[in-house]
Amino acid sequence: MDAVFIQSLCIAALKTGTPLLLIALGELICEKSGVLNLGQEGMMLMGAMAGFAGALYTGNLAAGLIVAMLAGMAMALLFGVLTLTLNTNQVATGLALTIFGTGLSAFLGGGLVGSTIEGFKAIPIPLLSDIPFIGPLLFNQDIMVYMSFVIVALAWWVLHKTRAGLVIRAVGESPHSANALGIKVIGVRYAVTLFGGAMAGLAGAYMSLAYTPMWMENMTAGRGWIALALVVFASWRIGYLMLGAYLFGFTSIMHLMMQGLGVDISSNLLAMIPYLATILVMVALSSNEIRQKLATPMSLGKPFDPKRH
After folding, report:
1. Structural domain containing residue 236
2. 95 domain residue, yes or no
3. Range in 44-53, 204-213, 287-296 with the lowest mean pLDDT
4. Is residue 6 in a domain?
5. How is residue 125 annotated by DSSP?
6. C-alpha 29: how far from its chain's center?
7. Is residue 274 included in any domain, yes or no?
8. Bridge partners for 132 per DSSP
9. Which spans are transmembrane here (predicted)?
10. 4 in a domain, yes or no?
11. What total number of domains does the chain contain?
12. Which helix (DSSP H) or strand (DSSP E) does residue 124 occupy?
């Protein structure tokens, strides 16, 4: 493999990993506050459909991004009302949200299938994009890839260097203690749930406005589920999450690479690689039960009712 091929492979892995990074980051922040939302796939699909529709009907890609984030937040708000206000089971509600989002996006987006738009294009940064190998990889990307870098840096800073981040982590570790200190636990969890929905919508918009500028049913192809595994893989650490997203992005395009190298294996088997990698990672992580318990937020998935405490 020559340098050009390796560079193209890395660029493809970065692009493929970007939607995983965005949606997994939103879920990581949610889980840090104790909220387990398994509805990522449904929210991402709604974001992809709404973002494409918004861009198609307004002729403005920025409007598409806003609509996608609002669609994700609307789905997240529904989840929040059910789990945070009505105290329904978070796991069951998240699964129902995925089913609901998958069906609703297919229904509302039925008339959009076959429509096309001009999606986000690469924007080379002067001078930096001319750096050998690194330049085209990091500094000749579309605006959403650049946005993902900024969002990740801001999320890390907020989570680890600000009072807001301390509050989020406190709510996730001991909501009863946080409530005793005057922190509005439910309010905090609503806020991060909406943030998670916005990130899922943004990830969906990347799929339909940048990665493949079109809409089709189930176009996220299980990325919401991979993102959930990715959060666990990263042990709820943003740095590891970023690395894992691009690693999973690489596994997602390995089948194209192997076909390009002439490997005589069924394309269907090669397409299974990212999902097989997800299973193997989860099995490996489950083998170290003590480490996993130490990394997991203490109140993850547990309901909290301030009236009972």
Report:
1. 19-303
2. yes
3. 287-296
4. no
5. P
6. 11
7. yes
8. none
9. 6-30, 42-59, 65-86, 93-117, 137-159, 190-212, 224-248, 269-287
10. no
11. 1
12. strand 123-124
